[in-house]
Amino acid sequence: MNALVEITGLPMLHLVLLGLITFVAGVVRGFSGFALSAVVMATALFILPPVKLIPILWFLEFSANILMVRNGIKEANMTVVMGLVIGSILGYPIGLSLTHSLPVETSKLVALCIVLTLAFTQILRVRLAFLATLPGLYGAGLISGVVSGLASVGGMVVALYVLASTAPAREMRASLVMYLTVSLISSLVFLISYGMMDRATIALGLLFSLPTMLGVAVGKQMFSPRLEPYYRPFCLSLLMVLAGTGILRLAT
């Protein structure tokens, strides 16, 4: 235990809290197909700033995808997935640059506002016709890349894009899984080039991959045909509450 504290530089209480947060985020990811990073961003900012959380979240997303990618390959719309990935590759370094240039408190506030705004637009089922076009596909990917680099919530932008189509819940979930899987490769290159993968980050990422994978396994069991109509409203409502609470905490 003392070795973990020494390697990560975090007190034991913070390590325990991060373990609980990543487990809950894993449950949400296994159930919905997205929002792992958004849940962690909305709840763990009192422990670590976004610039520290983003590389840790790479490990969590990778571990979650190990458990979910098989079904994603079978059911995803890969044409849509690749268009989104191309756009996100262009936008990701922009988001990372903003994360490094903004003050810590400002970065936290921007991250939480992004989570809250995107969740609110999705829970209202906002559908933009432009998103159903080819430019809309690449534009959604570009914006997703920017907010992924800034706050690791690009999956929610992709979910908003899917809302513009009539895709069934299983296809949407699978496409999100495959988008996150493919985009992990390019994001790793950028994270390494920005020098964000240090010893403590790798240790934290590997450590919290375990509760994340346990949570994903639980969430996958909850995704049944009977509950499919309710999974999106539940996750988005949760994100709105968490992000709103975080914003109020920063404002006081």
TrEMBL record:
Family to which this protein belongs: Belongs to the 4-toluene sulfonate uptake permease (TSUP) (TC 2.A.102) family.
Organism: Pseudohalocynthiibacter aestuariivivens
Pfam families: TauE
TM segment ranges: 12-31, 38-60, 80-98, 110-130, 136-164, 176-194, 200-218, 230-251
Topological category with respect to the lipid bilayer: Multi-pass membrane protein
Keyword Transmembrane found: yes
Subcellular compartments: Cell membrane
Listed PANTHER family: MEMBRANE TRANSPORTER PROTEIN, TRANSMEMBRANE PROTEIN YFCA
Coiled coil: none
Keywords: Cell membrane, Membrane, Transmembrane, Transmembrane helix, Transport
Principal place of residence: membrane
Name this protein carries in UniProt: Probable membrane transporter protein
